[in-house]
Amino acid sequence: MRIIHYALTLPRKLDVLLSNIGTQDFIEGRRHLVLGVISQIIKIQLLADLNLKNTPQLVELVGDSKDVEELMSLPPETILFTWMNFQLKKRGYSKTVTNFSYDVKDAEAYAHLLNVLAPEHSNPSTLKVKDTLERAKLDLEHADKMGCKRYLTAKDIVDGSPNLNLAFVAHIFQHR
């Protein structure tokens, strides 16, 4: 019982939202609640470097000091979107990614992002491929060549799995 209490105390220190979950939920094995807590902890860890202290290069995303303050007040996930869209604009990609589901399902944004970050590993035919599943597979091959471990499959990309796509982009950010 004491270890379960500790398991609930630690996430609170990490600012994990623990609504409607308590010691009894762990004892009774309510998977969806326990997995929700674990998912939040993983997300916090994946996004931990999205700040100026750990990643001073983020300053390139903004113009002046006022914008820097504004950027740093944003949630880490929003900073990740800002970084991704900044990279995509370098490539001339016209769409804006605002979510890790619908906006990345066609795997085009990933192809452009990976080509900006590691053109030496790019496959020129990736964007010519009409089949989104095949394009997603090529994107994952490109990411592998960059040293990015995969958290998802090509099917996860085209299905628009938001948590797995967020993990993938966060990992790309860490390996850029």
TrEMBL record:
- The molecule here is called Fimbrin-2
Q: Does the keyword rRNA-binding apply?
A: no
Give a GO molecular function annotation for the protein: actin binding
What is the annotated quaternary arrangement, including any partners? Interacts with F-actin.
- Report the Gene3D superfamilies cross-referenced here: Calponin-like domain
Give the residue spans that cross the bilayer.
Answer: none
What organism is recorded for this protein? Answer: Salvia divinorum
Any GO BP annotation: actin filament organization
Q: Which SMART domains match?
A: CH
What InterPro entries does the record point to?
A: CH_dom (IPR001715), CH_dom_sf (IPR036872), Fimbrin/Plastin (IPR039959)
Species classification:
Eukaryota, Viridiplantae, Streptophyta, Embryophyta, Tracheophyta
The record's keywords, sorted A to Z, are: Actin-binding, Repeat
